[in-house]
Amino acid sequence: MATPTIESPRSGRVAPGYSRSSTSRGNFEMIAWLFMRLSGALLVVLIFTHLWVNLISGDGISGVDFGFVAGKWASTLWRIWDLTMLWLAMLHGTNGIRVIINDYAEKSSTRMWLKGVLYTATAVIVVLGTLVIFTFDPCPVIDGVASTASYCPAV
C-alpha cells in the first residue's frame, strides 16, 4: 500500500506580493518586534496587578462598582496605571493585527483598507479611553446638589 502524501499548507495559495520600493523601510519591523516583546512582558505585570487589586485583595467581583472605581481613580497612580494598560494593550494588539493583515491580505488595496480601519478604530478607542480616565469626576454636582459619597471631599 502506498504512503499518502500530505500537501504543505497553503500550497495552492499565491503569496501576497509586497510592493516594496527600492528604499529601505529602516528598522521598523525590528522595532515593532521588540515592542511586542517588551510591551507583552510589561502588560503581564500590569494586568495581573490590576486583577489582584480589583478581584483578589478586595471583595471580589461583587466589590467592583462605581464607588470602587471612583475611590481608586482618586489616586493619580491608578489613573496612570490604567492609562498605561490601555495604551500598551491597544498598541500591542494593533501591532499584532497589523502583522496578521500583512500575512493574510493578498491584495495591496485590501491591506490598505484593513489597516486604515484598524488604525482608525485604535485611535478612537485610545482617545475615548484617555478622555474617560482624565475627565472622570466621581463627585459630580447635579442640579446644584453635590454628591455625598464617602470618597467625595466635603464641599
Provide a quick synopsis of the model:
With 155 residues, the chain is mostly helical.
**Measured on Cα atoms, how large is the radius of gyration?**
23 Å
Residue share in β-strands: under 5%
Strands in their spatial order, largest beta sheet: 1-2
Low-pLDDT stretches are: none
Fraction in helix: 55-70%
For the biggest sheet, the summary is: 2 strands, antiparallel
In angstroms, what separates the terminal alpha carbons? Answer: 88 Å
Instruction: Give the strand tally.
Output: 2
Continuous helix count: 4
What is the approximate shape? elongated
Q: State the domain count.
A: 1
The CATH level-2 architecture is identified as Up-down Bundle
Structural class: mainly alpha
CATH topology: 3 helical TM bundles of succinate and fumarate reductases
Average pLDDT over all residues? 85
Find the CATH superfamily: Fumarate reductase/succinate dehydrogenase, transmembrane subunit
The top level CATH class name: Mainly Alpha
Describe this entry's structure for a reader.
By secondary structure, the chain is mainly α. It has a single domain (29-137), classed as Fumarate reductase/succinate dehydrogenase, transmembrane subunit (3 helical TM bundles of succinate and fumarate reductases, Up-down Bundle). It is built from four helices and two strands, in the order ααααββ. It has helices spanning 28-56, 66-72, 76-104, 108-135, and strands at 141-142, 145-146. The chain has a two-stranded antiparallel ribbon with strand order 1-2. Helix 1 crosses helix 3 and helix 3 runs antiparallel to helix 4 (108-135). It is elongated, with a radius of gyration of 23 Å. The relative contact order is 0.11. The model has no long low-confidence stretch (mean pLDDT 85).
